[in-house]
Each structure stands twice: as C-alpha cells, then as structure tokens.
Amino acid sequence: MMGELLFLIPMLPLCGALIIMFAGGRMSRKLLAAVASFSVIASALTILWLWPLAAPQTRVSLFDWFEAGALRVPVEILFSPLSAAMALMVTGVSALIHLYAASYLHNDPDVRRFFALFNLFVFAMLIIVLADNLLLLFLGWEGVGFCSYALIGYWYRNPGFAAAGRKAFLVTRAADVLFVIALLWLFRLTGSLSIATINQQATSLPAGTLTIVALLLLAGACGKSAQLPFSSWLPDAMAGPTPVSALIHAATMVTAGVYLLCRLFPLISLSPTALAVIGLVGTATAFYGASCALVQRDIKRLLAYSTISQVGYMFLAVGAGTVTGAMFHLITHAFFKALLFMVAGAVIHLAAGEQDLFRLGQLQKRAPLLFWLLLAGALALAGMPLTAGFFSKDAILVACFALNSPWWTGLGVVGLITAFLTALYALRLVYLLAADRDVTIGHGPLPRGMIWPLLPLGLLALVGGQLNLPEPWGGGTVLQRWLQTPSGRGGTHAIEWGLAIVTLLLFVAAWLGARYRFRTLPMPPGGGVAAFFTDGWKIDALVRNAVSKPYEATGRLLDGFPERWYTAVLPDWLGRLCQSAGRYFRTFTSGYVTHYLSGMAWGTFLLLAILLIGLLR
Amino acid sequence: MIVPLGHVLLFAGLLFVAGLAAVLLRRNLIMILIGVEIMLNAVGLVLVGASAYWRHPSGQLFALLLMAVAAAEISIALALVVYLKRSRGTIDVNRFDGMKG
C-alpha cells in the first residue's frame, strides 16, 4: 500500500515540469524557480520518507505500459538498496543545483524553458534509476538524452552551441543503437525485459552470446558516459549553462552508463572477456581524460575532461568486479564534481563570462569562501588522503590489485599514473585560479544563492569517504553493507596500506610538481603537443576523417549515379516517352464520326473472326 | 417454318452488312441514319426468325421493343440533324470534326 507512494518519486519532478510548461507563462521568475526546486526537494524527501521500504525485492507495478505477444512492459519500480541510494544521490544533488540555478540564471529571459527541461531531466533520470524493465529504462535513457540535447543548446541563438547539442545527441544516439540491439537480443534470449529476470536467467545463456551482449551493453553505456570512443561530445557539451554541466554532464546523466552496468552486473560478470574490456575501456578513458585535462585553457572543458576521466575509473571498478566501488566513486564524484562545476560557474560569473584559466585569478582575494570550496572539491578530485575521492579511488585500485593477475595489475598501474595526473591537473586548476594577475571584474558580488548550495557539497567532498570507509581504516563500510552488491575480491591489509602510501606519495609529488610549475605566473601551454592534448587527442578530427568524410564521399558518389539517375534522368526520359506517345496517339482522334465507327466495325470484325477461329478448332 | 433459319440468318447478315456499309461509306447524315435503321431491322429479323424457329414468343416481343426504341431513337436523331442543318448549314459528316484531339 505504501509501495504505490514510490511513484511519487519520479512523478513529482514530472508534475513540476508540466506545471512550468503549461502554467509557467504567468509565473514570476521566483515562482518558477520555487516550483522547480520544490518538486525536486519533495522528491528527495519522499525517498527519505520511504527509505525503510528499500529492499532487494521491493517492486511496485503501476500499470502495463503495453503488451504485445510475449512482450509485456509493466511500468514497474524496483526500490532496491542500489536504486534507492542512486535516487537519493540524484535528487539530493539535483535539489542543490536547482537552488543554485535559480540564482545563476537570475537575468536570463528563457528561464521557464530552462526549469521545465531541468525538471523533466530529473524525472527521466529517476526513471532510469528506478525502472526494473529495460524498455522503461530506455524511455528514461532517451529522455535524459533529449533533455541533455535541449539544455546544451539552451542558448540556441549561438549556432556553435546548437551544434554542440546536436553533436551530443548524434554521438549518444549512435551508441544507443548498439544498446537497443543488446536489449532486443536479451529479449529474444530470455523472453523478458525485466532486469531481475534477465539477471536470473543469465547463467543459462551460452558464453559467446553473453560476451557479445555484454559488449553491446558496454557500448551503450560508453555513449551515455562519454567513454572512448564516444567521448568527444562531452567537452563540447559545456556550451550549456553551468548548472546543466554540473547536473547532467558531471553528477548524474554521464554516470547512467555506469549505473546500467551495475544493475546488469550479474549478467556481465559471467563473461570475463567483457569485464576485461570494460576495465580496459575505463582505464584508457581515465588516462585519456586526465592527459587532456592537464592542458585545457577553458575551465569548463578542463572539468569536462576530468569528468570523462573519473567516469573511466568507475568503468574500471565495474570491470574489476566491484560494483560497490563503482557506486562509491559515482556518489563521491557527484559531490565533488558538481561542487567544482558550480564553483566554476561562480568564478565565471565573477569574471563576467571569462572562461580562460589564464585570464582568471586572484580568487582567494576576491571570494575567499569560494576559494575554500574550490580547494575542497579539487583536493577530493586529486585524491588527497582522507577526502572522499581518496577513499573511493583507492577502493577501485585495491580491487584491481587484489585480482592478482597481470592484466588487472597493469590496469591498476595505469590507474595510479592517472591518479597522479589527476592530482596534477586538479592542483593546476587551484593554482591558476589563485594566480596573482590582472583579472576582469564582472557582474559584482556573487548572489548568496550561488554560495550556500555549495556548502553541503563541499562538506561531503571532504568527508564523503565516511560512506564506505574501508575496514583497515576502522570504517564500517556502510555503503557496502547497505548495497549488498559484489565488491570484488577484498584486498589484504598489505594492499590497502601499500596503495594508500603510494597514492599519498603520488599526491605529494603532484602537489610539489604543480607548485613548482604553476605557482609563479605560468604561460599558457603552446606548441603542437599541447594542441594535440587540448583537442582531446584530435579525436574529433579522427571521427571526421574516419566516419564523416567517408560518409560524405559516399553521399556524393550516390548523388552522382543512382540519385540523379533515378530522380532526374530516368523520369525525364519516361516523361518524354509518354509525351511523344501521346502526340502519336492524338492523330487517331480525327474528330470524324465515320473514322470512329469504322474503327468500331473493324474491332467487332476482328473479335468475331477470333471467335470463329476458336469455334472451328 | 417454311423458310429455313439459315436463309433468314443469311439475309439478315446481308442486310446488316448493307446497313453497315451505308453507315461507314455515306457522308450524308440522313443516309447514315437510314443505314443504322437497316442494321436495326436486320437484328429484328434475326429475333423474329429465331422466335419462329424455337417456337417461343420472346423473340417477337424483343422485335416489338426494338421497333419502339428505334422509333424513339430516330426521332431524336432527326431532331439533331435538323438542328445541325440550321446551326452549321450542312449535314455532311466530314464537315464535323469538333472531337479532333
């Protein structure tokens, strides 16, 4: 009975979106923001209220979406510990970002469209999180894709921004096709689209098929989570307003891929090959993102590459078999990356829209509180010991090394190198923002509404590690006991402590390096190598050469022969044939009655003759 | 039946061909109409002959109907001829080619 109330969780943001869409025209700016924020806060409170219901088997079905033959798609919510935790994180972070956005967009004319889409996004994201049926999940999956597209191109009058939205849409759509194939294949194999049923029946599937399906799912997840080779849309997605980047492109939507893999982990874990590939993709992306973030000049692009890199860690965690580790890093990352993005938004606001790191600075003098928040986020990102990022990243690396095979040890080492790069670029960000140089002075002081939503996130970025403090640290592994998900092979104390010391050393080394390199007024990166990394390893050019150009060439080719032939030459020719035939047959109609009559007579004669011949035979 | 059916059919056929020849070869509208009448009468002759051969009255009934229809048809046709003579001043069919494509 209480169970039906679970539908309030996604419905509240949907109601908010609908109210803003249909009745928002007459609302004042403040009321719009209040409706949007309230619906999300109410949703978060509902989750807290219904928290006791969360159990692996809590499922509530509202109605059947549709039924066709063996395919039955109920609108069903699964309120398992995993989805409950994810939903709480999504709504909690969304609520804070909504409050921040209310101040951030205080003089934007289209604020109604913004909040309607923002609420709609939360609704779609909650559908992904709570759905038990893969098709319902896909509805949310495409819903967040659409909202992401619409919000990246929010300032659509700028053609570049609109193009960035289109790019995000197209790239994720390409990956979604693979996801849909996996979905249909799973339906064929198991006769069901329910995640629970699929996970149960997974053991009976042939190993080869399982691997291919898992890889297809991985491709779908890679598209949404901006992993290689689908990563290129995320840096461009920074065209959207900063709250959008914080919510969609850092905290929630880009982690949907990780979440999908976590939900389907019982299926995926049956294929060691798929796990190895997931780990490889994750590590490669983590390293790729970190190397690109190291040389970015644009503050938001830096954070975007950082997000790509951090989501790569989550993929590595899934590959290494620790769903708990992936979720732990997902949650802590949501805290510190949302924080960093919102700090970036505030910094950009202070500098009147300037996003170039080499023209920003003096942050600790102009806005000390903001600087401390930045430091909290950056230290968590850098994995400074005892911050949230330190524990979640270490959990992943411990799981890698504990597997005790050359493959995973290798990936773990790359993960460590990436951790060093991460610390380096995180501290570079801090040093550049604190640099003592002439800066543009922007729109005056920060609105209070842009500061206080950051405080809880700053706190969580520092102490969020308590959520799942590993055992050697005297922690209770709260998250692990709550989620009850696979956490990989537990590491020995030696691995835990060894890794902690190594990461500490790496952090200190990175700090010294960043201090040496960036403390004094540094010059912007230049030269071909820097350009290579700034452009994200030229992946865009690669895609253009490998996909777009052959496609266009094929198009031109087809335009020449079949297209022009079938749409111009052939119809022209047929038309002329009909015309001349008409001109010829026209001469038959002389207009003289006698001619017509003799035609009729000869016709009759012919028919009679044929009949006669038939009779004589 | 005194006259054999074959003779009746042969005569009717000759009559029909004669009428058809008149329709196709003459230029005067009146003559064409007369040709049509001859063809109709050939058909009527066949009906009556067949009626006598099978000793069944329906053929004769058809012949009567045919006469009535032919009378109606020819009266309308003659009215049209009169109208054409007045409006165009001629009843030569080769002068009418209003249906030319």
Give the structure's gist in a few sentences.
With 617 residues, chain A is mainly α. In chain A, 71% of the residues lie in helices and 3% in strands. In chain A, strands 1-2 form a two-stranded antiparallel ribbon.
- Kindly report how far apart the N and C termini of chain B lie: 52 Å
How are the strands of the largest sheet of chain A arranged?
1-2
The proportion of residues in beta strands of chain B is under 5%
**Total beta-strand segments of chain B:** 0
Descriptive overview:
The complex is a heterodimer of chains A (617) and B (101). Chain A contains 25 helices and 2 strands. With 617 residues, chain A is mostly helical. Among the domains of chain A are: 283-537, no CATH class; 591-617. Chain A has helices at residues 8-23, 29-49, 81-104, 111-130, 134-152, 159-190, 195-201, 207-224, 233-236, 242-251, 256-263, 265-268, 272-293, 299-319, 323-350, 363-366, 368-382, 388-402, 406-434, 454-463, 478-483, 493-518, 527-534, 539-586, 593-616, and strands spanning 59-68, 71-78. In chain A, 50% of the residues are buried. In chain A, 71% of the residues lie in helices and 3% in strands. Chain A has a two-stranded antiparallel sheet. Chain B has helices at 5-25, 29-54, 58-88. The radius of gyration of chain B is 17 Å and the shape is elongated. The termini of chain B are far apart. The chains are: A mainly alpha (617), B mainly alpha (101). The A-B interface holds A 586-594, 597-598, 601 and B 20, 23-24, 27, 93-94, 96-101.
